[in-house]
Amino acid sequence: MSKTVQISSPAQFSGLLKSSKIVVTDFYADWCGPCKQIAPIYEQLSAQLSRPNHITFVKVNVETQKEVAAKYAVTAMPTFMIFKQGQVVEKVQGADPRKLQSVVKKLAAEADGGSSSSGFGGSSSSSDWRKSDLPKGYSDITDQVDLKGLELLNSDSEFGGVRVLVESSKPSGLQKDSKAKDWVESDTDEQLMMFMPFQSSLKVHTLQLTSLPPKASDDEEVPMRPKTIHIYTNRPQILGFEEAEDVPATQIITISENDWDATGTATIPLRFVKFQNVTTLVFFVVDGDGEGERVRLDRIRIVGETGEKRELGKLEKIGDEPGE
């Protein structure tokens, strides 16, 4: 469920400015194309950084909340304003995901006394539900995933969509009494295929995969954890299952039972030299660890370094020289 607050009155907005240390505000309009384009990025930030009375994400429809928009002289959409102790401290105009993420994460770190506890693009912290520390010298770069380009084949629609895999929020499988189905399960068999494009070229050092199948019961089949995964770099689009059999993988990883820690997370170092200047990854879950027919995946974390930003929507194959 989204943690973003939809503002329905000036009084509600004023109350939040008083009760929350930081208020991140998205001034938008339903007819605004760029507003719709950046909305998934804003929702991801909200899901990862929101904390009651500390950091609150809100949306203000300038058509229905004209008084609020006029008070802060909002004339262009989208406009993002960050309030600290009720005062505007940052303003971002236009759908610039990189700038928005940078400004919001900086304020979130300041709110925590100088160290980010979000798990979003920073070092591991005590509030991070994962137990495994990040490799020294590298950071969580999952925020570089281009959410609009994510694709997933052979997933059961009863469970969460592909975007839940790159959320940093604590999986429901680690929360008592949570009924949210915030994970992915394969559908007709144990195989999954996922296409993951990035906003910039990356150096990918390590993957952290989380899988939290429930304990076996008599009346239902329990999904398996992934066992064999083929990883492909810089493919322009998702592979078909038959096509993947003819394409050499950049790396094949095999996860054993002992690789999963107490949080259901396996930390997998990659052959770093093969994962330089990465603009897309394709994950092919070939089989699961067991005799079942379905595979479950809860979260994926990308660890490495960010590089040059690419223009969204244009995937270029690394290594090709531009034409004269």
From TrEMBL:
Domain PITH: 130-322
GO molecular function: protein-disulfide reductase activity
Sequence ranges of Low complexity compositional bias: 113-127
GO CC, alphabetical: cytoplasm
PROSITE patterns in UniProt: PITH (PS51532), THIOREDOXIN_1 (PS00194), THIOREDOXIN_2 (PS51352)
The Thioredoxin domain, residue ranges: 1-109
Domain of life of the organism encoding this protein: Eukaryota
Chain residue ranges for the region called Disordered: 111-131
Matching InterPro entries: Galactose-bd-like_sf (IPR008979), PITH_dom (IPR010400), PITH_dom_sf (IPR037047), Thioredoxin (IPR005746), Thioredoxin-like_sf (IPR036249), Thioredoxin_CS (IPR017937), Thioredoxin_domain (IPR013766)
Signal sequence segment: none
UniProt entry keywords in alphabetical sequence: Disulfide bond
Protein's UniProt keywords contain Disulfide bond: yes
PANTHER family, per database record: THIOREDOXIN-LIKE PROTEIN 1
Similarity comment: family membership: Belongs to the thioredoxin family.
Entry protein name: PITH domain-containing protein
